[in-house]
Amino acid sequence: MRRITFDLDVLRTFVTGIDMGSYAKAADKLGRSTSAVSAQLKKLEEQLGMPVLRKEGRGMVTTPAGESLLGYARRLLELNDEAATMVRGAELAGSVRLGIQQDFGEHTLTEVLGRFTRVHPQVRIEARVARNGELMEQLNSGRLDLALAWDGGASTPHVVDVGRIAMRWIGPADESRLVWSGDPREPLPLVMMDAPCIMRSAATRALDQAGIAWRIAFSSPGLSGVWAAVAAGLGVTVRTAVGLPPSLRVREDVRLPALPNVGLRLHRHAAELNPPAQRLHDIVLEALHA
Fold first, then answer.
1. CA 41 to chain centre
2. pLDDT tens by residue, 24-35
3. How far apart are CA 1 and CA 82, in angstroms?
4. C-alpha 221: how far from its chain's center?
5. 3-state secondary structure of 94
6. Of the candidates 170, 199, 201, which has an alpha carbon nearest to the alpha carbon of residue 264?
7. Is the peptide bond before 246 cis (omega within 30 degrees of 0)?
8. Is the pLDDT of residue 90 over 60?
9. Contact 229/235 with Cβ under 8 angstroms?
10. How do 123-130 and 94-101 pair as beta strands?
11. Separation in Å, CA 129 to CA 37, 55, 102, 159, 223
12. How far apart are alpha carbons 202 and 251 in whole angstroms?
């Protein structure tokens, strides 16, 4: 069987195009012409002996082979970049202060901190898991270098739009714990974060527009309290599917109204970050895109 040795530069083009949703945008980001990018993708498909992309509407999507390759390509590029950073930046030192929304505090933060500290063990990281309002207040007052927060309408001068994520109705994994007939005259029990809360507002607005009565059955200042109350059957909540505990699940209930998407943004305190903060900024974006 012929052994294939992938060109990491070609894999980077492949992954960047998928992440950006456009190979024209990828060409611009990578400083290449669109014809050069097309040549790289053709080379990749010739190596594999099968297509990795197919047309869908005006865009391109991965084939089954391309979808399988994508995960491996990300891992190869991550290891390559980690090795390069280690060799060139082993002496990086200092400190960086990161604030992160509670939904990402368990899984994403663990991955980000692990990747960063393996490469830069001399850098001291101060991480704060908090709600949007607190994160933005600390960023604006200079107590955070970076803040990963939901888009609640407030902007800052230095921000990257990471993407948009669907809000979902969340209930207990054991549906027998939640008692609600679905009759719109019977108030739907809600488990919510204390106001003000983007997702609390989205939930009540959607229910009001659908003519479904509701009541706040439980309110908590922290996400862990919300998860516990929903798992116990006190009501349903609205979050994204990010970091969903196994005791909960997304409810696909036609009686519940559709919900909008919510934006996710990575804010910087300053236009120019110190080297540790800039490296952490890049790792956060890489982890979220992956």
1. 27
2. 888 888 888 888
3. 31
4. 22
5. strand
6. 199
7. no
8. no
9. yes
10. parallel
11. 40, 41, 6, 19, 11
12. 16
Q: Which residue in 217, 182, 179 sits closest to 200, CA to CA?
A: 217
CA distance 168 to 250: 6
Distance of CA 219 to the CA centre of its chain: 25
Residues 243, 104: contact at Cβ < 8 Å?
Answer: yes
Q: How far from 11 is each of 22, 36, 107, 184, 275, CA to CA, in Å? A: 15, 13, 26, 52, 26
Quote the CA–CA distance of 226 and 223 in Å, as a whole number: 5
CA–CA dist 138, 21 (Å, integer): 33
Average pLDDT of the segment spanning 88-115: 81
Does the pTM surpass 0.85? The reply is no
Pairing label, strands 159-166, 237-239: unpaired
Q: How far apart are CA 203 and CA 169, in angstroms?
A: 9
Question: Position of tokens 């996710």?
Answer: 264
Closest by Cα among 160, 153, 150 to 240? 150
Residue 156 token pair: 């800052």
Residue 226 contacts residue 103 (beta carbons within 8 Å) = no
Question: Do 89 and 275 form a contact (C-beta atoms < 8 A)?
Answer: yes
Would you give the end-to-end CA distance of the chain in angstroms? 31
Take residue 185 and report the two structure tokens written for it: 């005259």
